[in-house]
């Protein structure tokens, strides 16, 4: 039955998921919260858990046969034809510290390919959506990557130097110092900026599928390319190292510098 859903049906559900997550997260944003350290030492809050549960409740009613891969509550039916990949609050540290640059990430994966990607930024009031064949949008307005083909002209961003191990940092530093501009911070918003044409490269490590699959769908729909550091497509079992680029030529140069 899942294959009978249209892209419009899926987009409606994705909007409902983002709305539900925002209703919980915004209610608790910039309020005192109990912080819990997860196994990977990233902080999780009541807002994360409640927002994801609200999303799962919608899928339980709308998409019972689909799988779910969520950051806070784990895996359900991930062997299904279609899997919803959810990160209710990407950038929990930003959320905790009152920064507006956190978002909700949603991806719909079918047969190993991302069919829908969403980066929702509740505080900024920006909802970025990508679907194959229909392009990418920010709040209903079409967006597209910048036509940047030279590393020397590229604007590169990553969340923090702290996400890299020593060898990966050396590779990132080598690449980023050859770019026209490098910036740190922004969490998932960097991927939205790439889709919107104001950033050209995002390079990160240590990510999980719920961190990168939503942005992947958005950027690919906007005309960009996203792979791992070996140039392979991202999926549910990728190693967490991500290169997102505005153009294939820029992507090729970035991979070469990372591997140098």
Automatic annotation (TrEMBL):
<dbReference type="InterPro" id="IPR020583">
    <property type="entry name" value="Inositol_monoP_metal-BS"/>
</dbReference>
<dbReference type="Pfam" id="PF00459">
    <property type="entry name" value="Inositol_P"/>
</dbReference>
<dbReference type="InterPro" id="IPR051090">
    <property type="entry name" value="Inositol_monoP_superfamily"/>
</dbReference>
<comment type="similarity">
    <text>Belongs to the inositol monophosphatase superfamily.</text>
</comment>
<comment type="pathway">
    <text>Amino-acid biosynthesis; L-histidine biosynthesis; L-histidine from 5-phospho-alpha-D-ribose 1-diphosphate: step 8/9.</text>
</comment>
<keyword id="KW-0378">Hydrolase</keyword>
<dbReference type="GO" id="GO:0004401">
    <property type="term" value="F:histidinol-phosphatase activity"/>
</dbReference>
<keyword id="KW-0028">Amino-acid biosynthesis</keyword>
<dbReference type="InterPro" id="IPR000760">
    <property type="entry name" value="Inositol_monophosphatase-like"/>
</dbReference>
<keyword id="KW-0479">Metal-binding</keyword>
<keyword id="KW-0460">Magnesium</keyword>
<dbReference type="InterPro" id="IPR011809">
    <property type="entry name" value="His_9_proposed"/>
</dbReference>
<protein>
    <recommendedName>
        <fullName>Histidinol-phosphatase</fullName>
        <ecNumber>3.1.3.15</ecNumber>
    </recommendedName>
</protein>
<keyword id="KW-0368">Histidine biosynthesis</keyword>
